[in-house]
User: Which sequence fits this backbone?
């Protein structure tokens, strides 16, 4: 299912401005210099605040878009809320998947995942797109992080693309655009559904139900049946429902960045 539609100090003090970019438009420079995409992965490695079972970012949700975008000529950086080594959800560690293996065995990508950039040091003007892979850890350290909110809003305000999958849209629940409105307000958004959360047995563990929270923020939640593919592109925001959506999201994200196809009337 697919729907279309400077210095370290200066980077940390980057000012937000209202850009003359219509909501559905796609600027030629994509809001960044060159073909760089920032993947932001969780730093949170347990279900809950402490002592829970291990989690982290979902490997395939990072690996498949990484492979597709890299083959298309994009340079990819990795950041996280805390910086340093990013935890991988053990349940997603399928080394027999060729995309997972390619990411883990790539020297540059492995180095970047061991040494992720602290998100507070990331500068929106460096990137055409910011992408938030999922994994349950994102539910704890994405929603209230002010630097995540800043870079997502700034990339979008400058005419770039914001993307997220599964629990990755937790990064978007508190993002406001330069006009002060929630970024997801009025947009069609796919994310891990409340029904899927209950099916995994984690509805009482996560701090909130993601799809419900997105709807509270004014999003039009779009979904498929549990664990089936669903990808949506709306006003330069590209989202997917779950790991099964990673392949199509990767393709649509590439098309959006190369050709500006994620435009709504």
Assistant:
């Amino acid at each position: 299912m697919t729907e279309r539609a400077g210095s370290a100090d200066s980077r940390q003090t980057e000012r937000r401005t209202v850009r003359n970019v219509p909501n559905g438009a796609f600027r030629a420079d994509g809001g960044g210099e060159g073909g760089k995409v920032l993947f932001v992965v969780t730093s949170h490695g347990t279900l809950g605040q402490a002592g829970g079972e291990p989690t982290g970012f979902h490997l395939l949700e990072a690996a498949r878009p990484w492979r597709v975008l890299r083959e298309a000529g994009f340079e990819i950086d990795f950041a996280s809320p805390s910086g340093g080594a990013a935890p991988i959800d053990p349940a997603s560690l399928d080394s027999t998947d060729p995309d997972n293996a390619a990411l883990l065995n790539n020297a540059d990508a492995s180095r970047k995942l061991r040494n992720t950039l602290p998100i507070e040091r990331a500068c929106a003007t460096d990137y055409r797109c910011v992408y938030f892979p999922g994994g349950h850890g994102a539910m704890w350290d994405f929603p209230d992080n002010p630097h995540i909110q800043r870079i997502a809003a700034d990339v979008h305000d400058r005419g770039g693309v914001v993307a997220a999958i599964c629990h990755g849209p937790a990064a978007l629940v508190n993002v406001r655009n330069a006009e002060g409105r929630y970024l997801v307000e009025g947009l069609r958004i796919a994310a891990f559904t409340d029904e899927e959360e209950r099916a995994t047995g984690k509805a009482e563990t996560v701090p909130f139900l993601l799809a419900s929270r997105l709807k509270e923020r004014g999003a039009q939640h779009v979904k498929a049946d549990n664990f089936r593919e669903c990808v949506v592109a709306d006003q330069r925001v590209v989202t997917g429902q779950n790991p099964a959506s990673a392949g199509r999201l990767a393709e649509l994200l590439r098309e959006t960045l190369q050709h500006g196809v994620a435009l709504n009337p």
Q: What stands out?
A: The mean pLDDT is 89. The chain has one domain: 28-259.
